[in-house]
């Protein structure tokens, strides 16, 4: 008797159909279209995760620039001064300090101005 691969094929297809859930028109229920849609969606998801990192870095820099300009110094002078003063804090933490802890940020700016 011939062995059939029905169970495995159905499992594999179900997994991919689940990923296509919520897609428009035939992209959610026709096998050929589903494969194309899922592949495309996963590609966009992958590049989106990479883009996200750049977007957040841009956001932190914008927040830092705004906070530093209130203290009368430019962003690039601030970063240069931090490097000169050997203060190793990344932009994410600096932006967090600038938004939430104003007094600590002012002290950092003083350290930069001294350097």
UniProtKB/TrEMBL annotation:
Q: Which Pfam families match?
A: Ribosomal_L20 (PF00453)
Task: Report which gene this protein is encoded by.
Answer: rplT
Free-text function comment from the UniProt entry: Binds directly to 23S ribosomal RNA and is necessary for the in vitro assembly process of the 50S ribosomal subunit. It is not involved in the protein synthesizing functions of that subunit.
Report if keyword Phosphoprotein is assigned: no
A GO CC annotation given for this chain: ribosome
GO molecular function list: rRNA binding; structural constituent of ribosome
The name this protein goes by in its record:
Large ribosomal subunit protein bL20
Q: Which GO terms describe its biological process?
A: ribosomal large subunit assembly; translation
Q: Which PROSITE patterns match?
A: RIBOSOMAL_L20
Q: What organism is listed for this UniProt entry?
A: Endomicrobium trichonymphae
Q: Write out the entry's keywords from A to Z.
A: Ribonucleoprotein, Ribosomal protein, RNA-binding, rRNA-binding
- InterPro entries xref list: Ribosomal_bL20, RIBOSOMAL_L20_CS, Ribosomal_protein_bL20_C
Q: Which family does it belong to?
A: Belongs to the bacterial ribosomal protein bL20 family.
